Amino acid sequence: MTAAHWDAVMAGRDGELQTAGGEVRRLPVARWLGHEHADESLLTVVLDWCHGPTVDLGCGPGRIVDLLLRRGIPALGVDDSPHAVRLTRERGAAALRRDVFAPLPGEGRWSHAILLDGNIGIGGDPARLLRRAASLVEPGGTVVVEVEPATRGVLREAIRVRAAGGTSVWFPWARVGSDALDDLAATAGLRLARWLDHSGRRCAELVR
Fold first, then answer.
1. Distant-in-sequence, close-in-space partners of 103: CB < 8 Å, separation ≥ 6
2. CA–CA distance, 94 with 84 (Å, rounded to integer)
3. Is-contact 189 132, C-beta < 8 A?
């Protein structure tokens, strides 16, 4: 049911998140679709960290997978939204419609796993998600994550998606601040290697 509402967001190019506490946040659909110059600029730097096969967890419409392929880097997108997977494949990129915690190809052999665009919040348990991402990459591989500069600690919340097609059920999500990432990484057997601050966004590279 939630995947269907993500589909409506992608198809309608608009939508918002509502938290159980009453906060409403507009979804950056234009960014996900690859229509923002600042996003392109950030990705140019972040994707320089990727030198081998990469899996993008929560790939959305596939702009990151597409950019990696254009650099000659094998890449796979994973998303539970059928429309997002379809958009990724229309770019000529590979994508699977699957929960990120379900079995995936090449487990333990990827060079890099990506959790950008707030995707570290998938499932509402960042520690579990980082352990999952770490299990996908080889020893010495990396997990690239984006955190929220304005958030402190880990904020777990129930959210729902509102789009032209209606409103989804509530589902768990999380927001992670910079100050929490070191400890979260350690629980997953990852080491914080470097930060990138760009256009008000903050990304980190974690090494297994």
1. none
2. 12
3. no
Quickly list H helices, 13-60. 29-32, 37-46
Q: Is the separation of the CB atoms in 62 and 73 below 8 Å?
A: no
Rounded-to-integer distance, Cα 63 and Cα 181, Å:
25
Reported as a single tens digit per residue, the pLDDT across 143-202 is: 999 999 989 999 999 988 887 767 888 889 999 999 999 999 999 999 999 999 998 999
What is the distance in angstroms between the CA of the first residue and the CA of the last residue of the chain?
Answer: 35
Instruction: Tell me the pLDDT tens digit for each residue of 75-125.
Output: 999 998 888 899 999 999 999 999 999 999 999 999 999 999 999 999 999
Cβ density class 76-103: b for 16+ within 10 Å, e for less: bbbbbbebbbbbbbebebbbbbeebeee
In degrees, rounded to 5, the angle at the alpha carbon of residue 39 between the alpha carbons of residues 1 and 37 is 125
- Helix 178-187 / helix 126-136 crossing angle, nearest 10 deg: 50
